[in-house]
């Protein structure tokens, strides 16, 4: 989830219902749902795409993803005449510092996720994105000193119990799931520091531009040691690798269109599509095993999420009534 507090997940938390003159609110909301389903659905299908890139390893896949995403974002910015926004962001040291940190965090997240999918751990990767909302709540307590409501505390406690059960099931700490959850949760927290001062495309452009030199260096090293596959597996493989820029940016654009039309509650509910699709793909198409203990662990995670969603809906209804 990329993108973003959720996924290859959302990158921005600036969603508000966009009431356009002459357009019914329901019509805009329906479009928002369609865009959201498109974004989270595409993020959920990423495991299939990464499997198709074999025999490329996770480092080469991520290096290409960074580089081609930067190129594709540059094309979008050129077409939309958004270079002024890039220039404004470059002049702001605080924004640049924040986005550079965000870039490192998303790099860790991408590397971990691709490694998980290509090494037969896609189920654990989906677990990471299932528990990501719980991690975000926990970060709010630890970093922002937020006070949780009783149901939020209950959800975090149930989530911790699930990690214990899954640790027993795997015979070790599910580090892939935890690294994905914490890297993406922290990424969302860092991006919140930027707020609405940069849009999604500008943000992704700067993050990938910061990482591009390292991506190029990785591709050169892989070529020198004979492990690069970009140009040695035929045109089909080349264009599959090159399309990673489009595959990264398009769901992000869909998410932006959705976020401008839906409330944060609507976006928050849709985000669970991504790990659910990933989970289904992992156990059906990829054929990863699920022991009884793992099913129990996942069931506990889903209970924690149900508690969190219930609390979110109750809080949203109270807020609406107070308006």
UniProtKB/TrEMBL annotation:
InterPro entries: EamA_dom, EmrE-like, RarD. It is found in: Cell membrane. It holds the Pfam family EamA. GO terms for cellular component: plasma membrane. It is a multi-pass membrane protein. Residues 1-24 are annotated as: Disordered. Keywords: Cell membrane, Membrane, Transmembrane, Transmembrane helix, Transport. Residues 31-167 form the EamA domain. The chain crosses the membrane at residues 33-54, 66-83, 95-116, 122-144, 151-168, 174-190, 210-230, 236-255, 267-289, 295-314. Belongs to the EamA transporter family. This is EamA family transporter RarD.
């Amino acid at each position: 989830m990329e993108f973003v507090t959720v996924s290859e997940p959302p990158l921005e938390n600036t969603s508000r219902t966009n009431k356009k003159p002459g357009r019914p609110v329901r019509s805009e909301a329906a479009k928002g749902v369609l865009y959201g389903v498109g974004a989270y659905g595409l993020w959920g299908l990423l495991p299939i795409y990464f499997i198709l890139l074999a025999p490329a390893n996770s480092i080469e896949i991520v290096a290409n993803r960074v580089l081609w995403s930067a190129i594709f974002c540059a094309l979008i910015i050129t077409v939309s005449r958004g270079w002024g926004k890039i220039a404004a962001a470059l002049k702001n040291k605080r924004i640049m510092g924040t986005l550079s940190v965000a870039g490192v965090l998303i790099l860790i997240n991408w590397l971990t996720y691709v490694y998980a999918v290509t090494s037969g751990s896609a189920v654990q990767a989906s677990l990471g994105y299932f528990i990501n909302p719980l991690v975000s709540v926990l970060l709010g307590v630890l970093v922002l000193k937020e006070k949780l409501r009783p149901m939020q505390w209950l959800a975090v406690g149930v989530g911790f119990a699930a990690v214990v059960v899954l640790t027993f099931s795997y015979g070790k700490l599910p580090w892939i799931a935890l690294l994905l959850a914490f890297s993406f949760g922290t990424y969302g927290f860092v991006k919140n520091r930027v707020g609405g001062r940069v849009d999604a495309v500008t943000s992704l452009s700067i993050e990938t531009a910061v990482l591009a030199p390292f991506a190029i260096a990785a591709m050169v090293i892989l070529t020198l040691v004979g492990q690069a596959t970009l140009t040695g597996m035929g045109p089909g493989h080349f264009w599959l690798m090159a399309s990673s820029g489009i595959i990264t940016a398009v769901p992000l654009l869909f998410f932006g269109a959705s976020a401008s039309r839906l409330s944060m509650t609507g976006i928050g509910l849709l985000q669970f599509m991504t790990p659910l699709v990933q989970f289904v793909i992992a156990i059906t198409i990829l054929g990863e095993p699920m022991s009884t203990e793992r099913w129990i662990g996942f069931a506990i995670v889903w209970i924690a999420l149900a508690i969190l969603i219930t609390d979110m809906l109750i809080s949203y209804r109270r807020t609406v009534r107070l308006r």
